[in-house]
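Input/output pair, single chain:
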Amino acid sequence: MNAVLLHGLPHDQKQTAVRMLRQAGVEDANLGALLGSLPFGPGDATCGCENELQAVVVGDQQSVDLPCQVFSSNYFRNLLKRHHRGEMPRQAVSDLERWLTQNHDGVWENSWVRIPRELLSPLALEVFERDLLADKSRPQDGRRGDWQKFILEQDGRSLLRVPVSYLLKLSLVQALGCQPELPAALRAHGLSLAEHFLSDNTSPETYSFSVAEAGPEAGLGRQVSRETARRFLLTQLLTQFAERGMGLLETGQRVLVYFAPHPPVRQKQLAACISDAFYRELFMNPCLSGWERGGDKQRYMHLCHEVLTRAQFNALGRLKEAGIILNDLVALPSASNISLANNGTHVSLGSRRLSAALADPAAGLGAPQEKYLGDLVIKFVEHFLPLFVGSYSAAPYRLAFRDFHPEKVLSFLPYQLDYTHLRMLWRRWKKKASLNLRPLGLRLTPFGPPWLDQALSRLFGLRGDLVPDFRLLDYLVAVLSTDQCPALDGTMGNQERLKQDLADQGVFNPSMPIYLLYRQRAWAERGFAGFEGRHYSLFPSLEHDLGRASDLQLLLTALAFQLIASGRLAHAHLPDDPETESERRQIFFGTAVGLPTFFVREDSRNRVLRSILQDTQQTRHSRRYAGYLRVKHDDYRSAAARFICREGRELIQALVLEDTMLDLLQRLERPQHRSAAARLSRGVLEQMGQRDPLRARAEEFNRAAEAYYRDSLRTVNLREAWEVLAADLRGPLMARAQAHPELRDCLRRVLGDLEPGVLLDRSRGAVLAGRASASELTKLINLILIVTRLLALEAAGVDKGEQHGTGDAPVPRTAYR
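Output:
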C-alpha cells in the first residue's frame, strides 16, 4: 500500500487487529495462505438480499381502500365540520378534496386491499387468524388489540382489510390451500417461504429464500441476482393470483408491485394535507407478518416515524447554527415525514470462516474482537461507496427552483455532515442548479410563496436540478458521531452510547438502531458474522447491476480484511472524530447530488483518503478555502477504482472478479451510457418524449418516473426473471430436481405429463400481459416452489459442511432479514 497509509503508525497498533485475525484462523505465511484463509475470500462468502418494493392499487374511489378510508375517517369529517364552523380556511379542506377527486389514473400508492372472506381457503384463514394473535408464541393471549381494523362488513359481506405486503403472504398460502393434492413437503416449503414476505415500514419487503454462494455455475453476484429474480417473479405471480383467486378484480381492485425508490409524489402531497398521526394510521404497516409480536413492532415503527418527523423540524436549528439559514424566514417541513416510504435493497454478506471462529470457544475470538474488526472494515469500505452511487443503482429525481429551500432539500444532511462540509456541499449544489439571476449576478433560493417562486423561475429561467440518487438524500442513512461518542472506534457499546448522546440532542431514540451506510451483522445477534450494504436504491437490471454491485461489495470487504491481516490497515489510519467521519461521507453524498467537486483538508488525518488522493489527476489547491484541496468527484472515483485494482490484484484473481472490475471501469469512463442513473433517466425521458430532463417540469418528470417504474421497468424486470426461471427449467438445476426422489414426485403430481418448459412457453405471454388464469398461475407458483426447494436443500447441505467438508458453522437461511 502507499507509504502515506503507514507512516508514523506505532507497531503495536498495527498488530492488534492482526492478532485477532490469527485467532480467526487467518494464515499469513505467504500470499497464497493468506488468500486461502481470509474472511470473505475465495469459497468463504455467503450472500442474502432484502428488497423493499412499491405497491399500488388501481381502481376507482368507491372500490379502493385508501380513498374509502380517508372519506369515512373521523379526521376528514372533523375537518369539514371545523371549516363549516369557520375555524379552518377552505384551503385546508380543498387540498385534501382535490387529492381525493383528481386522480385520473386511479393509482393509489400504498393503499390496502379488501378481500372477500368467503373466497379464502381454510388454510389461508388459519394463517390469518394466527397472524392476528398478540403473541404468536402464546395463542392463549388472544388477538392483538387492533384486530378489528383488519376485518370489516360491507354490503352484507365480510371482508379482510390488509396491506399489500400481507396480501403477498396470504396469496401464497391461498395458492397452497387450494390444492389438496399438493405434496406435503412442497406445502410445508411454501408455508416457510410465506414468512419471507414481511410487513414492515410502509412498503412490501421480501428477503432471500436461501443464501447464495459462488459455485461452478456462477459467481456470488450472479447467484444473488438470480435468487432475487426468482423471488420477484413469484411476487408477480402472487399479485396476479390474488386478483383472480382472491376476488380482487371482481371487487374493482388491481394490484401492482414493483421496484421504485421514491415515496410517490401523490403520497407527499397527501402528507402535506394531513396530520402525522393520521398519516401513520393510513400508511404505517401493521406488521402482521414476520414478527412474533406484531403489535409491538407496529408501535416501534410509529416511534421511528415520530422521531424522524421531529428530527426534520429540529434540523431547522442546525441549519441556522451552520449559517445556511440566515434569518427566520423558512418554509416549514410537512407535518408528517414520508422518508420511511422510500425503497431500497440491502445486500448482506456472511463469512463462514469468521462465523466458525466466533462459534468455537477455543479460538478465543468473541464479540469485542468482532466489533473491533467490524468497525475498521466499515470505515475502510465507506471510502469506496461513491463507486456504487449512480453507477450500479440510482434514484433520479427532478427538483424545481421552488424546492430549493435548504430546510427542505437538505433534509437529514444536517445530522450526517459537520457544518463545514454541509456549507461546502450546499454552496456547490446551488451552483450546480444554476440558481442565478444572471443579469444581476446574484444567486438566490426560493422565497416561499409559490406564486412568487414560479414567477421568478419563469422570468429568469431557473429550472432547478436533476439529482442522480435522491433517495440517499431524503432519508437518514448515516448519523454523524459526536465528539464524545464515536460510532466506529472499535469499542463495545459505542453505538449505544452514541444513540443516547443523540437522544439527548432530540435527534434519535435509543430503541432505534444506528443508521449506517455499511452495517455490521454481529454473529451473536444474527447467527452469522458479516456486513450489510444499505446504500442501494434502484437497479435498472438485476443481473447486470445488482449482481455486479454484490461482487464489488464482496471484493471491498475481502480487501479490507486482507489489508488488516497484512498489518497495513488499522484504526489509527482512520481517526474517529466527527470531522474525519464527515470528510469521507461528504464524497458519498456529493456523488448522490451529482456535484462536480468536493474539498479535503491538505493536512487530513485520514490516511486511506490521502492514499487515494495521491492517484488523482486533477486535484489542486482550493482558491476559496485556504488549506483545502479541490478534488473532482469523477477523478476521485477513478482513483478509488485504481486503488482497488492495485492493492487487490491477487484477490481479484482469486475471487475471479476481473470482469467486475472491467465493468466498473467502463461505468466510470462512460457514465452517460453505462451508469444506472443515466439508463434510468433515459428510460423516463423516452417515455415522456423528451431529451433534456431540465426542460421538463419537475413534477411531470417525477410522475413520469413513477409510471416508468410501474409499467416499463416492471415489465423489463419480469422478463429478466422469466429468463432466469427458463434457464432453471432447461439447465442442470432441473436435471438435479428430476434426480431427487422427493422433487421428482412433486413435478409429476403438480404437472402430470406436461413438461415444465412447455408450460413456461405457453403461459409467458399471458403472464407478461397480466391475464394468466388462476390455474396457470398455480402451476407456475408450484414450479418456483420446486426450484427454490431444491436450492434450499442444497444450501442447507453446504451449510452443514456436507459439500465442503470444512465443518463450517451453518449460516441460517433466515439470517438476512
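Residues 799-817 have pLDDT under 50 and may be disordered. Residues 485 and 579 are 13 Å apart (CA to CA).
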